[in-house]
Amino acid sequence: MNKRDAEILSRFVQATREMQVHSTAQLGSALKKPLLLLLIISRLENGLARENRFNFSDIRGQLSNLIRRYGGRPTTSGPRPEQPFTHLASSGFWKLRTQRSYTARNGVDI
Asked: What is the Cα 58 distance to its own chain's centre?
């Protein structure tokens, strides 16, 4: 790993350490954002991604299963795998591009 890549990795690791996850005393932490990142890292490591972008439709099912198994909290609306895509936009390393613009306040249908 060259010096530039090491610096990028270091910044990413720091940003993930500082990543905020929603948490309540009653339900605990929502682990959707970390699960999405782990899924993407796994896809990169296994050669399932050839570029620095991901289509939601490509990982929706797998992410839904991970959320149900490891990171879901009781809800009547299901795992909602689209949430970490939009909520990670608050991090410095995640850029969300959709077919239409939105604001964090009104959300977006993915």
From this structure: 14
Question: Could you read off the pLDDT of 53-102 as tens digits, one per residue?
Answer: 788 888 999 999 999 898 767 677 788 888 888 888 777 777 777 766 55
In the chain, where the domains are located = 29-110
Q: What is the torsion angle, in degrees rounded to the nearest 10, for the CA atoms of residue 27, residue 70, residue 8 and residue 13?
A: 50
Extended strands (E) in 1-110: 23-24, 28-29
**φ, ψ (nearest 5 deg) of residue 74:** -55, 125
Count of beta carbons in the 10 Å neighbourhood of residue 59? 19
Q: Which residues contact 84 (CB under 8 A, 6 or more apart)?
A: 32, 33, 35, 36, 63
pTM: 0.76
